[in-house]
Specification:
Elements lengths: L3 E5 L7 H9 L4 E8 L6 E9 L2 H11 L3 E2 L2 E2 L1 E4 L12 E2 L2 E2 L20
Keywords: RNA-binding
Pfam families: RRM_1
Protein name: RNA-binding protein
Length: about 120
């Protein structure tokens, strides 16, 4: 079982330190990080906590899921692995992928192929 926990629907006032202290009640916390917007520096409303053992992680999930923090019911669950995503029209290890737009490409649209 994984020891990394996803924490969602966090109030924007929650910091890394407060997140770590809330989860420390259930065992050793290796790391706690609230995700921040790059441009504004404001919290995105979710974060990740890594616990020392799987047992500590399960205890924290069981106790904190659905708990009210500043009027918001937080979501606490095991973190899923990050999915690889290629930008539309980008080249990746699997090869070139055309855009998901049906109106782009060589087709029925005159010079350049698009329908405009």
């Amino acid at each position: 079982m994984s020891t990394k926990i996803y924490v969602g629907n966090l109030p924007y006032s929650v910091t890394d330190a407060s997140l770590k202290s809330n989860f420390a009640e259930f065992g050793g916390v290796t790391s706690a990080k609230v995700m921040m917007d790059r441009e504004t520096g404001q919290s995105k409303g979710f974060g990740f906590v890594e616990m020392a053992t799987a047992e500590f992680a399960q205890a924290a999930i069981t106790a904190l899921h659905g708990m009210s923090v500043d009027g918001r019911s937080i979501v606490v669950s095991l973190a899923r692995p990050r999915e690889d995503r290629a930008a539309p029209g980008a080249y990746s290890a699997t090869g070139y992928r055309a855009s998901n737009r049906p109106d782009v490409g060589y087709g029925t649209g005159g010079f350049g192929g698009g329908r405009y």
